Amino acid sequence: MLRAILFDLDDTLFDHSHCARAAITAVHGAHACFRAVPFEAFERAHAGHLEALHRDVLSRARTVDEARLERFRRLLGEAGGEAAVAAGVADQYRTGYVAARRAVRGAAAALARLRRRASIVVVSNNLLAEQQAKIEECGLAPHIDALVVSEQAGAAKPDPRIFEVALDAASARASEAVMVGDSWPADIAGAHAAGIVPIWFNPLGLPAPAAPAAVSELRGFEPAAEAVDAILRAHASRADRD
After folding, report:
1. Of 147, 114, 133, whose CA–CA distance to 16 is shortest?
2. What is the 3-state secondary structure (H, E, C) of 179-207?
3. φ and ψ at 178, to 5 degrees?
4. Is 4-15+103-241 in CATH node 3.40.50.1000?
5. Is there a smaller number of Cβ atoms within 10 Å at the N or the C end of the chain?
6. Predicted pLDDT of residue 200
7. What is the pLDDT of residues 137-160, one digit of tens each?
8. Where are the domains of the chain?
9. pTM (2 decimals)?
């Protein structure tokens, strides 16, 4: 029986990529040193620094504000800009990111349907206040039973411990759950290692890594009925194998 449906948040239910692109587009256009760099290269560099410094946030080596400031110090250094303006650039990015917040298309409707079938738990490698704000502002809160973040769990995906906390929040066993997420190493491999059926949220149709094999894919949440059926079928296929 399916008792718990676990979801990643960023780029699964919440459209982080849209927010980051809107914010970095504004930053790129507002500063001459950045405009001298082709946008695609600038966006890639930003994403790389974001990923690297986010690990510092998760390990508590830096606060989220310190990591954002350092990110733009690095970008300014690479573009030949002045480090003295980094704080203003970081604030501009943050303002643009928050203004662009939105859910992934169809996510709320799919969650509303799924919650009739099982508990909904969001499992995220991030900070509690940040993820709570995204969920509230995007109208997802009424459809979510619990939020489990690495900050509070003391472990980050793919560590099985954070999945155990999520299962406890739903009073479910691993065999009674599925995990939907966009990150293969964190969400798919992590859930598989924890004994949970993984479902890869893959709207871009990217090729799957070699293992774990035979992972179900979800390309989007619209139409909601089809997305719900795909998630339920993924868990039912485990029951057939077991």
Report:
1. 133
2. EEECCHHHHHHHHHHCCCEEEEECCCCCC
3. -130, 160
4. yes
5. C
6. 97
7. 999 999 999 999 999 999 999 999
8. 4-15+103-241, 16-99
9. 0.94
